[in-house]
C-alpha cells in the first residue's frame, strides 16, 4: 500500500513529515507522488493562525470527498491544540504530534480492525526530545534538522505552547550522527530548526552554538544556518560563539512581531523595539554582510493607527532582507483572545498590505548594497537556457548563467543587479 503526506506550516512540520515518511516506509508502505494515487493520505497540520485551521479543515474534507476509499489521517499541531475540533472532522485516524511511530501503529491498527482512531496524548512536563533518522529531502539541496521542540514562553497571542509542550532539546551526539548521514547523502548545507530554537539547550545546560558546532562537524557539511531566533535570547555571548565557526551563515531570522514597544508589552514579548535594534546592531558589528529577516504581526489587540505607524517606521529603518507580514489571528485558549480592542479584519488587511509594501522597499535597499560583491552561492535549481538559482551565505536569492554541472555546488558569483526579489549575477573567477 502507498501513502501521501500533505504538510502545512513551518520547517519543523516539514522535517516531521520526513520522519513520518521514514517510519511508514520502514513499516512496508510506499510513498505516492499524488493524493489521488494514495491508499493512505496524511495531513500534517499547523495551527498558528485561524487560517491554518481553515486550511486543515478544507484539506481533510477535500481528501475525504476525492478519495472516499483511502485512509485519511490527521496529525500535527491542530489536533494537539484543539482535540475536540479535530475529532469532529471526517478523518479515519486523528493523532497528535507526539511520535511518528504512533502514526505507523495507528495505520496498521486501522487497516486490521477498520475502527476509527482518535488518539491525542497531551504533552507532559519532563518528556524527552524524540530524535529522528532523517537522511534525505527529495528535490532539495539543503536539509533541515529539528534540534528543539516546545516553548516555555507566554506570548499572549500564541497557542503553540499548548500544541507543543515545554522545551526539550536534542543531544549533541544525535545531531552529529544525523549531520553525518545527511552529508553522506550529498547535502552540504544544514538548517537547524525548532519550535523555539533560541531555547535549545536550556534543559541540557548547552548553548545553541554547541548545536551549530555539532552540526558542522562532518567535513561534507560546508554551511550551517539557523531558523527563527528570539531577540532577547540572541545574546552577545551567543553571537561571539557563532562567529567562531567558519561554517555558520550570517543570516538571522530575528522574530520581531511589532516595532512598537507598547504593542510588544501587550504581546508579552520579552524585549522592546530598542532592545531589538540593539541586537541587530550587535549582529552587524560581528558579521560582515549579515542579513536580517523577520516576522511582523499587524493588527494586534489594541494596536492604534499611531502604534502601527510607529511599527511601520521602525521596520523600514532596519534594512531587512525579507519580512513575513501577517495579520493577528485570535486563537481560542490564549490570553489575547480575551483582550479588549480587537482590530477589525479590514483594518488588519490594510495594515498588512502597507507593511508588506514598506518591507519590500526596505529589501530592495538592502539588495542594492550587495551589488558588486562576490558571494559563494549554493546552486539549488537549474532553469532554462543555462540559468541557475541559489542562495548566498546571507540567504540572498541569486540568478546567474553558468556552465553545465553546477547543480548542488557552491560557486563564486559576482552580484550585478536586482532581479525579482533577488539578485542577478555572473560567475566570478
Q: Can you walk through the features of this model?
A:
This protein is about 35% helix and about 25% strand. It has about 425 residues and is of the alpha/beta class. It folds into 3 domains: about 120 residues, Rossmann fold (3-Layer(aba) Sandwich), CATH 3.40.50; about 170 residues, pyruvate-formate lyase- activating enzyme; about 55 residues, OB fold (Dihydrolipoamide Acetyltransferase, E2P). The strands form 4 sheets. It has a 6-stranded parallel beta sheet, sandwiched between helices. Strands 15-16-17-19-18 form a 5-stranded mixed β-barrel. Helix 9 runs parallel beside helix 11. The longest helix is centred in the last third of the chain and has 24 residues. The radius of gyration is 22 Å and the shape is globular.
